[in-house]
Amino acid sequence: MQPLFETERLSLREFVPDDAPFVLQLLNDPDWHRFIGDRGIRTEDGAREYLVNGPIAMYAARGFGLWRVALKADDKPIGMCGLIKRDTLEYVDIGFAYMPAFRGYGYGLEAAQATLDFGRDRLGLKRILGITAPDNASSIALLEKIGLRFDRTIPSLRGEGESRQFAVDFD
Description:
alpha+beta, Aminopeptidase
């Protein structure tokens, strides 16, 4: 499948059902469970269903969603990054998650900046949010590096506790 866009080191494309083995690993990363939430997905079939009913359905409905992030050199998947329109939020938000072995190398920053640019330049979005757990220092730092600023505290998207909402506005 053709990339939606590329950065210096990364290739981002829409997920397909065959990405289920990788997504199963990502969804069961302890940090995913801690900061995003345990989706209860423990099989490749479950991961395939998650993809079909989540990101792939959003592509059809909105023209965007969470995208597969891979190393451009060898197409090895390392995470996901993309734009999400949730019923509970007024604006689109940016989301991302990476496998532990690929954190700390600037890949998240590279993909997130390209995703933000895509939302502004290709989708014409005027405002993009970032939602994170209050104790997710790495995600907060990444959101701030790409220009989002703390906006307010909101009820957690997981239904318990609070989340921090960040935002960037484009002229």
